[in-house]
Automatic annotation (TrEMBL), chains A, B:
This is Transcriptional regulator. PANTHER family: HTH-TYPE TRANSCRIPTIONAL REGULATOR ADHR (PTHR30204:SF98), REDOX-CYCLING DRUG-SENSING TRANSCRIPTIONAL ACTIVATOR SOXR (PTHR30204). Signal peptide: none annotated. Gene3D superfamilies: 1.10.1660.10. It comes from the Bacteria. GO terms for molecular function: DNA binding; DNA-binding transcription factor activity. It holds the Pfam family MerR_1. It comes from Leptolinea tardivitalis. Residues 1-69 form the HTH merR-type domain. The lineage of its organism: Bacteria, Bacillati, Chloroflexota, Anaerolineae, Anaerolineales.
DNA sequence: ACTTGACCTGGAGTTAACTCCAGGTGCTAG
DNA sequence: CTAGCACCTGGAGTTAACTCCAGGTCAAGT
């Protein structure tokens, strides 16, 4: 699969895909004779994983470490698990903070709703008053 | 309240507080005769709000817009509400993505748990075998 | 009087994560 | 055979959000 298709499929720009390879987040992708990248199934799986983790804000350097361990084989299983657990912990914390902010936003939006209603009521009273005055 | 106390109270560095003021996120803070910032209650409330929003990832330029509208008074209520609703929507989307990533992480951690168990079992079998062999 | 420490300013530097670009190669359709 | 893409590389530029720094003021303690 060529870079443009991969880019299309995962919504990552070709530049980003090459960048990920440069920094060692994706191990060197196979090339066709002419030097053009030809992503295989394993590459795609890795890209999907990276995309998922990045979307949630996991930092690239942590992912590089993790993937380095994956490549070292079974002896690193416990270390990898520890990394994921730590990142899971951080993720949950961030989500809790976001939930708090969401509550604040809802509270404020609700205040604005009420303010808008009050404004409208005042407007209506004014209209009625004027109608009576005529 | 001096900048060091505010910094302490909200966990934002003095540099960050001055930076927020420079870019117009906090309206100009009053000074004592000697030119030193003296944060009042309104400043603190604004800082708390900003901190809460920033923690959830709301971008600074959006907050600058929002706060500019707050300062323009009641005529901007609907516009402000629209901003908060839009940010709320984006926040929910991000949280949903994070939840998906959390599920993937849990799945992977679980796989590692099983892998570790298997490893241990194999180890135990080996030990038992050796014990019998003796 | 002098040192210390908190504060000030304007401006430069940093970090993460891309994103863009110039200059070059190589298939393919007209 | 040549025009037009899609691809390549190494390196530079960008963006958001800080963070740091040099050089200066000022009040308080010794």
């Amino acid at each position: 699969m060529k870079i443009a298709e991969v880019s299309e499929k995962y919504g990552l720009s070709p530049d980003t895909l090459r960048y990920y390879e440069r920094i060692g987040l994706i191990s060197t992708v196979n090339r066709k004779e002419n030097g053009i990248r030809d992503y295989d199934e394993a590459d795609l799986q890795r890209i999907e994983f990276i995309k998922c983790m990045r979307r949630a804000g996991l930092p690239i350097d942590v992912l590089i470490d993790y993937i380095g361990l994956v490549e070292q084989g079974d002896s690193t299983i416990e270390e990898r698990k520890a990394i994921l657990q730590e990142q899971r912990r951080l993720l949950v914390t961030r989500m809790e903070e976001m939930q708090q902010t969401l509550n604040v936003l809802d509270y404020k939006i609700n205040l604005y709703d009420e303010a808008v209603l009050k404004k409208e009521k005042a407007m209506n009273r004014k209209i009625v008053k004027e109608a009576i005055a005529e």
